Amino acid sequence: MGKLSNKVAVVTGASKGIGAGIAERLAADGAKVVVNYSRSVAEAEALVAKIKAAGGEAVAVRADIADPAQIQALFDKTLDAFGTVDILVNNAGLYIFGGLDSATPELIDKHYNLNVKGLILATQAAARVFPKEGGVVVNISSGVAKTPMVQAQVYSSTKGAVDVLTRGLAVELGPRNIRVVGIAPGLTSTEGTSGMDQPTKDQFIGRTPLGRLGVPADIAAAVAFVASEDGAWITGETLQVGGGLTL
Ligand SMILES: NC(=O)c1ccc[n+]([C@@H]2O[C@H](COP(=O)([O-])OP(=O)(O)OC[C@H]3O[C@@H](n4cnc5c(N)ncnc54)[C@H](OP(=O)(O)O)[C@@H]3O)[C@@H](O)[C@H]2O)c1
Predict the structure, then answer these.
(1) H or E element, residue 41
(2) Closest ligand 1 atom to the C-alpha of 41?
């Protein structure tokens, strides 16, 4: 029996990167997992096959989290597949680097539509269908909400909003035994960060006491902990998971 046996988890943006690592780990811990994606169908299906080959249960569901209509459909399909939802991991997020001058209205909307509006509406949809015993929402934040990154002003502000939502929603949903916990990765090797140049990566490594970049499994281990009963007394907090990068 894994720590998440009999639980159903929805992981948004799980076809790649940190989300894929989280989906794989939650499945290994016994959860039935919905691998959400918006474009990368081949990667999502390959991850589902990998989870099944390891003895787990998963389905891939396409839904653009930046589109409110598709969020409801994601939860309808989850209920069709597994009958309930116990855990939501709000991982889908985008980051386009640039300082203040690069912040066009379109770029701001793109970030907020997914990283903030999508997270709020996915949490709302999950809270409407969580069982009466409760549930867990894990919000993937970022160390940039704590330590400013000049070349990521718009992105950083979305993660600041995520941290405020983690605290506020924990207060609102706590009486229903719904916990809301943030996990803030440091720089993590993913498809999304693969284009970052090595000197920039080296700067991050130099600022990281544990002396390396994160990998999705590092982040997934923290998510699995807070989503399980071992995290039952944790809510409203955002845990930095970055090898000490934000110290
Ligand atoms: N990597 C880091 O260093 C780092 C550090 C701190 C925080 N984070 C946060 O961690 C999360 C994941 O980052 P990552 O680096 O793993 O990203 P990534 O490698 O770029 O992967 C992004 C994932 O999100 C999905 N996605 C993108 N837009 C979506 C949408 N509109 N609806 C549904 N899914 C969507 C992608 O699927 P499709 O290809 O199918 O669209 C993909 O599976 C983000 O919230 C990010 O802000 C990352």
Answers:
(1) helix 41-53
(2) 40
Helix (H, G, I), strand (E, B) or coil at 25: helix
Q: Is the separation of the CB atoms in 90 and 119 below 8 Å?
A: yes
Confidence bin at 124 (pLDDT 50/70/90): very high
Structure tokens, 6: 């009999």
pLDDT band at 40 (very low <50, low <70, confident <90, very high): very high
The answer, yes or no, to whether residue 1 has pLDDT greater than 80, is no
What pTM was computed for the model? 0.98
Residue nearest to atom 25 of ligand 1 (CA): 13
Contact residues of ligand 1, CB 6 A cut-off: 12-19, 36-40, 64-66, 91-95, 114, 140, 142, 185, 187-188, 190-193
Full set of structural domains in the chain with CATH = 8-240 (3.40.50.720)
In the reported structure, the alpha carbon of residue 133 is separated from the centroid of ligand 1 by a whole-number distance in angstroms of 30
Bridge partner list, 178:
135
Report the catalytic residues.
155
Which pLDDT belongs to residue 219?
99
